[in-house]
Amino acid sequence: MAAKNFGHLVSFIFGIANDCLVDVYDVGDYRKIILPMMVIRRFDAVLEPTKEAVLKMKANLTAAGIEDQDEALCNVAGEAFCNSSPFTLRDLRSRANQQQLKNDFILYLNGFSENVQDIIKRFEFRNQIDKLSEHDILGLLISKFTDPTINLSSRPVYDADGNMIHEALDNHTMGTVFEEVIRRFNEETNVTDAGRHFTPRDVVELMTDLAFVPVKDQIQSTTYRIYDGACGTGGMLTVAESRIHEIAKENGKSVSIHLYGQENADETYAIAKSDMLVKGEGNQSNNIFFGSTISNDGFSGETFDFMLSNPPFGTPWKTDLKAWGDIKKDDITDTRFRISYQGKDFSLIPDIGDPQMLFLANNISKMKKHTLLGSRIVEVHNGSSLFTGKAGQGPSNLRQYIIENDLLEAIVALPEKMFYNTPIGTYLWVLSNKKEARRKRKIQLIDATSFKKPLRKNLGEKNCEVSPEVRRKILDLYMAFDTADPKYSKIFDLDEFGYWEVPVYTPQLDENGQPIVDKKGNPIKPESDKEQVPFRYEGGIDAFIENEVKPYEPLAYIKHGTEKIGYEFSFTKYFYEPVQLRSLEEITADIRRIEAETDGLLDKIIGR
């Protein structure tokens, strides 16, 4: 759908909200009506052409005493869902009596198949019907949503002569409309969590390119499974499916794609599931699981070929501890987050205030190991995933596991203000367990913070985008690997990011400057500090202590075996370019120029 039509549709939706709901609902509650009505009308518009045939089949099934009718009626409708009520939404526009309209509308909703009933339930839309009826706006709302100048159907609309009046509203565009409506509702009510639910489409398109393009020559005519453990409205899954089909077709392949997602917010879960149904993928709608990915994994034991996700960050996950039985985080036994590594119990669990690393650990646990492509993961993170957690703590342990198992291909630093709800910088982590030969035991860092196209108008905090040209530039850096422009891309060995955290002890001294020891000759309560010793420090820990510590603390010592391993990333360390200071000659010349320009000015000011 063209940008012009997209803008017209969004304006149309907001016009309905302002015309029908003002003075009855607070602005913050508009979404309780608008979002479910968008979904219901989309279902309704798709089902209109087969309504008569469905009702005829229903009469036959009822006469035959068949109670379970959904499957047969859906077959007649030609969709993964159906509505067996006597009405379409257009039929209800003629009701003048509000009580009759209310009764018929409830009957209409009840006529949807069971898979749609779950969606209506998640929206809690039935709770609003009494209020809509009492304020005499239910009929107006239905009339607005069935306006013939707007097509919410996934099918085009033609006139009597076969000319197309309205193009189809494809699922990609419908998802974008949903996301824009959610974003603007949040913006108008100062709700700041819009980005928690969805990712800008330009970023999603970059993610899908990083997932599929590097392996496009290896994609075969077979079935692939794509998973998003924080799927929101399902937009990332939809774009991913479209992109892999496009890449496969370019290479003469035909792929079958199965989509899987999990979401724990009722509204966005309902939108994602409705998207699957309208696409005609009834079985796949069952692959959208409701609940927290952290504490209620909907796909336990499953593995996937591609995993793309933008998990929430900076959001406490205390409710997951309660779901596990009100336990403490150290008591978690889930094998996605607490593993056996190098013969030891190894916790990957981050601080309770930020769950994003848990989503990454969840994806890693679902990687395929015995296929040609293995699994590829592209996941959005903020900067904290690069360095939070001390050596031996969950986030550092996860980085250690990822790096030492050679799973990380690249990290791409994106510009600030790329997302709707936050101005901070974000990073794309690209993981694979089947690296190509040149990438083995290597990690690529890409600094794309300067690659952006300004928006003509800000969308919340978002003031720039990854245009197709910018996306191509980032992908070219990734694909070029060790021949890419070193200003923006750098390649490192795995041990570049590792260090030992070493306790360093300094004995207490007596008045003569001698160490105070116990009867066994051990220092009494020595003061301790910790030093980070890079893996690549020549000579290792002992050399570091000798060269970097003892010149300042000659009596300092360490206890071998007490060190811990840590891993962290620092883009600043590798890409920072200090501002070139001006020379003394340049500064002097500027001062003389200014003096010359202002010569006699002071005399004029004071009137001499």
Characterization of this structure:
- The structure is a single chain.
- The protein is an alpha/beta fold and 608 residues long.
- The chain folds into three domains: 3-169, no CATH class; 179-484, 3-Layer(aba) Sandwich (Rossmann fold), CATH 3.40.50.150; 497-573, no CATH class.
- Strands 5-4-3-6-9-11-10-12-15 form a nine-stranded mixed sheet, sandwiched between helices. Strands 16, 17, 18 and 19 form a four-stranded antiparallel sheet that branches.
- Helix 12 (235-250) links the parallel strand 3 and strand 4 (256-263).
- It is globular, with a radius of gyration of 31 Å.
- The model has no long low-confidence stretch (mean pLDDT 90).
Specify the CATH homologous superfamily of the largest domain: Vaccinia Virus protein VP39
Strand order of the largest sheet: 5-4-3-6-9-11-10-12-15
Q: Biggest sheet, in brief?
A: 9 strands, mixed
CATH topology of the largest domain: Rossmann fold
Proportion of strand residues: 15-25%
Summed over residues and divided by their number, the pLDDT gives a mean of: 90
Count the E strands.
Answer: 19
